Amino acid sequence: MFKAPQISKCKLVYLPKVKDVRGNLTFIEGDEHIPFPIKRVYYLYDVPGGESRGGHAHKDLQQFLIAANGSFDVVLDDGHNKERYHLNRSYYGLYIPNLIWRELDNFSSGSVCLVLASEKYDEDDYIRDYDELKKANDDANSLDI
Ligand code: TYD
Question: Which protein residue's CA is at the shortest distance from atom 4 of ligand 1?
Answer without folding.
Answer: 54
